[in-house]
Amino acid sequence: MIKNPKISKLESVLEQVKTPAYILEEAHLEENLKRLLHVKKESGAKILLALKGFALQDSFYLVREYLDGCCASGLHEARFSHEKFKKETHTYSPAFKDEDIDEILEISHHVVFNSFSQWKKFRHKALKKGVSCGLRINPEVSSSPVEMYNPSGKFSRLGITKANFEENEIDGIEGLHFHALCEQNVDALEKVLKGFEERFGEIITKMKWINFGGGHHITRDDYDIEKLISVIKEFKKRYSNVEVYLEPGEAVGWQSGTLVASVLDIVDNEMKIAIMDTSAEAHMPDTILMPYRAEIRNASLPNEKKYTYRLAGNTCLAGDVMGDYSFDEPLCVGKKIIFEDMMHYTIVKNTTFNGIKLPDIAILKKDGSYQVLKHLGYEEYERRN
Ligand SMILES: *Cc1c(COP(=O)(O)O)cnc(C)c1O
């Protein structure tokens, strides 16, 4: 997964790291943000941070300098955007609740409805508040690599299909939204856009804004940024300068930090198994759900290097396993292991499963200083159970 690991200053502070800890590297985050700013400036699109993937409030001082706001998926994320990020708040939910809608309308700039029934239910309130309203469309095209992450898959509840689109009910609608990508390059966006325009081109001409959703892997080294810029510019030209929004989550946090954990014990059952003070299930759930193999600094596939271990979590779940890795030197108790690219879809998904301690959240600043931002202890478990 790590194509070109960025130069990291982490080794120089590793000794002071109390594990487990997520460590954001300020310089890496800033590099991502600079790329996103380039896309914004050259294409004229606005870019929002998708809180679903990355919501580290202590990084907002920096993210806010580059991006236009946040996209939220309900009341809590909308409040977080409003209170912590303090720029634009765009709220979409598969279904809004009566008890939440007033507050959401109060603090959101855009609200996106997932169906005509939701739009009809809330439109009077929304229009009275002066919020810019949109509809989520299912473009019915997607090349998402995994069905779990395919919003245009069979029986998807996400977005309105062409067959369900009620053209005579769009008075008051100012925008359309689609989200159909997952960790993809611009060729996938082009395919989705083509399908979207074929189905909804007529409607697009009546809109003020179109939101292209997330899943654009813009900050990955092989992402074709210049192509993205031209795709957006051409789109804006075709639709008399309609405003375009992108809302990446993963691309903001991509390779911007690590999870550092320590070996607690090494046991043997036909292979060496290192038990870590972290958990795949609780702290890096996508390694099990997606599934994918987390990269470990200075480690390789099993048997490529001299010493192979299975790395596993400190919970009682048998399947709490990060994977098998090989190292040049044997591991020992107390050895710190650096899991790469652990800032997105990790902290936002953490659980206190099995009472395991949540990792601290720390930052490695550009000047080389290391600072623990959050220490999460017993209270987290106690409060939630
Ligand atoms: C998940 C999601 C995003 C962000 O997706 P990434 O893959 O993290 O870029 C944006 N918009 C919506 C509606 C989403 O559900």
Structure description:
With 385 residues, the protein is α/β, with parallel strands linked by helices. The protein folds into two domains: 10-23 and 257-342 and 350-384, Lyase, Ornithine Decarboxylase, Chain A, domain 1; 44-253, TIM Barrel (Alpha-Beta Barrel), CATH 3.20.20. 29% of the residues lie in helices and 22% in strands. It has eleven helices and 16 strands. The protein has helices spanning 26-43, 60-66, 75-85, 98-107, 116-129, 186-204, 225-238, 250-253, 280-283, 286-289, 378-384; strands spanning 21-25, 46-50, 69-72, 88-92, 110-113, 132-136, 173-177, 209-211, 243-246, 257-268, 272-276, 307-312, 321-327, 336-339, 360-364, 370-374. The strands form two sheets. Strands 1, 10, 11, 12, 13, 14, 15 and 16 form an eight-stranded mixed sheet that branches. α1 packs parallel to α7 (225-238). The longest helix has 19 residues, at 186-204. It is elongated and about 65 Å long. The structure holds pyridoxal-5'-phosphate. Pyridoxal-5'-phosphate (PLP) binds next to α8.
